[in-house]
Amino acid sequence: xxxxxxxxxxxxxxxxxxxxxxxxxxxxxxxxxxxxxxxxxxxxxxxxxxxxxxxxxxxxxxxxxxxxxxxxxxxxxxxxxxxxxxxxxxxxxxxxxxxxxxxxxxxxxxxxxxxxxxxxxxxxxxxxxxxxx
Length: 133
Description:
By secondary structure, the chain is an alpha+beta fold. It contains three helices and six strands, in the order E-E-E-H-E-H-H-E-E. The chain has helices at 49-66, 84-89, 91-102; strands at residues 5-9, 23-27, 30-38, 74-81, 108-113, 124-132. A four-stranded mixed beta sheet has the order 3-6-4-5.
């Protein structure tokens, strides 16, 4: 699938991760650090949580592609949300957005609930890292 040495990490005795990975290792690669991306488009209606999540994922992948990589080169994500409950309630929309932009690729991830994001219309922001061959 990927053209770099990319290995999911499963510590001994831990359950297999479903929908994410506990950690990822890669060798012989160049690092890419992607600043927080939001799904709110300038001048467009903000949309609901699922729409914004899809937009943020799309922007993360676009930055990775602009660096010469692919979605599967993303090795870690931090997802900041203004409501974990809204994140959970948007499950189907989140899954559709994920499959559209990342397929079955699951980097190491952290979900963090925050009181607000810099853009007052933003509900989600995604920061990511990756490795390029």
